[in-house]
Amino acid sequence: MSTITAPTSGAPSKPRNLVEMNWDPITRIVGSLGIFTKIDFENREVAECYSTSSIFRGYSIFMKGKDPRDAHFITSRICGICGDNHATCANYAQNMAFGIRPPGIAEWIVNLGEAAEYMFDHNIFQDNLVGVDFCELMVKETNPGVWEKAQRKPANGAKLHGFKTISEIMTALNPFTGSFYRETLQMSRMTREMFCLMEGRHVHPSTLYPGGVGTVPTVQLFTDYMVRLMKYVEFMKKVVPLHDDLFDFFYEALPGYEKVGQRRILLGCWGSFQNPDVCDYTYKNMAEWGKAMYVTPGVVVDGKAVTHSLVDINLNIRILLGSSYYDDWGNSETFVKHDPLGNPVDQRHPWNQTTVPRPQKRDFKGNYTWVMSPRWLDKRTGDHLALDTGGGPLARFWSTALAGLVDIGYVKATGHSVKIYLPKTAMLPETEFEWKIPQWSNTIERDRARTYFQAYSAAAALYFAEKAMKELNAGRTKTWTDFKVPDEAIGCGFHEAVRGVLSHHVVIREGKIANYHPYPPTPWNANPRDSYGTPGPYEDAVQNTPIFEENGPDKFKGIDIMRTVRSFDPCLPCGVHMYVGNGKTIKTIHSPLLGNQEQSGHQE
Amino acid sequence: MPDVVPYGRVTQRPSPVSDIHILWMTSGLSCDGDSVSVTAAMQPSIEDVVMGAIPGLPKVHLHNPVLSYEVGDDFLKYWYQAWEGKLEPFVLVVEGSIPNERIKREGYWAAFGTNPDTGQPITTNEWIDRLAPKALAIVGAGTCATYGGIHAMQGNPTGAMGLADYLGWDWRSKAGLPIVNVPGCPVQPDNFMETLLYLLYQVAGLAPMIPLDDQLRPIWLFGKTVHEGCDRAGYYEQGDFADYYGSPKCIVKLGCWGPVVNCNVPKRGWMAGIGGCPNVGGICIGCTMPGFPDKFMPFMDAPPGSHISAGTVGLYGRAVTALRGITNHTVNKEPKWRHPRAELTTGYRPRSY
Hints:
Number of helices of chain B: 12
Strand order of the largest sheet of chain A: 4-3-1-20
Oligomer: heterodimer
Helix content of chain A: 25-40%
Strand order of the largest sheet of chain B: 2-1-3-6-7
Distance between the termini of chain A: 30 Å
Helix content of chain B: 25-40%
Shape of chain A: globular
Largest sheet of chain A: 4 strands, antiparallel
Strand content of chain A: 15-25%
Radius of gyration of chain A: 23 Å
Strand content of chain B: 5-15%
Number of strands of chain B: 7
Largest sheet of chain B: 5 strands, parallel
Number of helices of chain A: 17
Largest interface: A-B, 98 and 89 residues
Distance between the termini of chain B: 76 Å
Structural class of chain A: alpha+beta
Structural class of chain B: alpha/beta
């Protein structure tokens, strides 16, 4: 349900009956995000979408002057579901700035921890938060016709997951009472135990340090992890077919559903899981060790890879002010004029950003959010691309598949797909899944990729565990490399937070933090129209989305919009707003409240 | 048929309060990490409490934005009902530091929902002002809400503070309860759920007034130090200290503040007895404490006094204990810039507001 906001006025370019709708807050995400829409019920589509965020904390401000060794402890607190991704990314940046290389077993331990994080986080988000949008209660409320079909539709994977029809799957997803909902919630705990074995605590780890980990590698540590991992591997053999059945059914039951949340293929992935044999954390070799990561970094435009080099990725990041509550920093200090390879670094690069907050009234014609607009400059065209992360997994798979570099026995990138091999488990035989590059970057494919990436993480963890135990058995158990904090240094870390690209940029002067700017995935996905007028990915994906919900404006749930927003796995310690009225139509497309922009997200 | 009560049911008494609502705000300056953490709890789990798996409790209606089925106005209506006194009784859970909205001319630091009359966001502080007088109890989940935490660090731009700084340390609910603080960054999952369970027992008349210390923490959870529950304390007693991370010995010389920090995590583990901090190689950075983070930074340096205490264990036991007492007192105090006055005293000098 939603509320109608102020009546709108202005000269429409073409007459349409639009209803302004607002959901505030959007629940079942992490953080607050506001989405304001105008809906054309006659033509059954979203005409405009705006999102806004409601929190500012100021990390880049209060980190100034602090000890650079504290960066990972502090930045973990940016995010309450993937804080460890921040801590890890901060460690990567510290390692570069301090000039250190952790011992191999430390990297395997971190990889095992981060793999457990993906296994946990995708699992709880997909089946306890997103899944509710596909559950019996919701589908009955929004699309009784779909529920009818679901009761008659046999599930192909019934033998594996045990649900005979699609409707049985939907019932199992009902919050708190559904059997699969309850099983996944429990599974999210077991995966967090795996995480705690490697990184101490969830969600803000205790055992990560620049230079390595404090985790003590023992036979018991890896036994405890492996036993749980194999239970998860068996679970995946049911979960992947279950979601394939559910998502395929939506395409079939609602022809045209592929248009929901569809946008141009503009995907970014910053890579995940270091290969300690190659990664020395030097900037000079970054392009090389980036390509050795077990999820390949890359920028994918219209289905083609533009680059897989972390140096290219780094140099072309631009932070645009957009419509946010900050002062410009064009004339502020330039901290880093050239990168260590001699390439010029732009004033709008995170290394050179100065954050100056200016709180003010929210004005959709002017500034209306605490999030700036990160963009990636495509040197070929000069375009500032509004890359999205596809919620994380879609971009990771797409980039990894195209690069064709990962080949570790359990996982193989083919150039057009990614194959995932899961060995025999207690009750189920060995199984292979293949994620194939889809036709669309849309809501359903973002969600589908999430399930497949759970299997990918489990398969990769099997490899990491083998490598770690090899080190242990060879007696190479040192987990930490000592270091001294230099007086002057710069560093950058690239990682994949669960929901997509993550970078940390640090400048050290006189042994203290002079500048620090983290860029998590949600600012990339949830940002407003930028200085060039380019909309951010959420608005872009929601705008022109067809409406399949059977309810009219009076009982409108906005389910297709909700599924789209949640497909990006929003993580804004902030809120989503969407306004819907009680069915009152407003003949206009220009609103004094909304103006012409949208945005959202938290960044700091 | 005579109306005979089966023998077993004689022991079962319905709660004098049939229903209770839990309104959970994550819209302080937070990361939602406490909500996420609580989904890991198993003693009890959220499902145990919501589905009525524990005898004697009222029926619990949980309204938490991370887990709610409802969206938008369907979700917010409970907040409005509570404000109007139509959702009785309810417990308010607050997650995230409370920003100081009085240090600037306009705009907001943290908000939750949009005011239908103005089109402007409703600040988190406005909601707390509306709901605090009506709540049966207020619980701070995590160190941000309890004492200010990370976002109340020196040099912060928002003037962030904890609930008790905002409402007053001697605040009492209409039922006579002080603020209940469950600190931790994030909160240890079972610590939070157990505190909530205790309050539900109290509401049901099955437990006496919740025992809290002077920092408003449940005494049974925070009455001991990290060190007292740490399985590496034996190394400490032998004067055998780690000099590199990854060593299984006592890590007090590597930055662990365990001897002066009130927290049960090494004893309880992080979840299911697994994980923790110094017990598994992570230095204690004091994340449950009112003085967190400032009084523990830089985290990786040895705490002052640890050289003395670490080097002289056994010889100067009494002196060390006294020193620790002083330090424990110091880290149990918040820095002085956390206050609700209309001025920013964190050290950050805004040019733009």
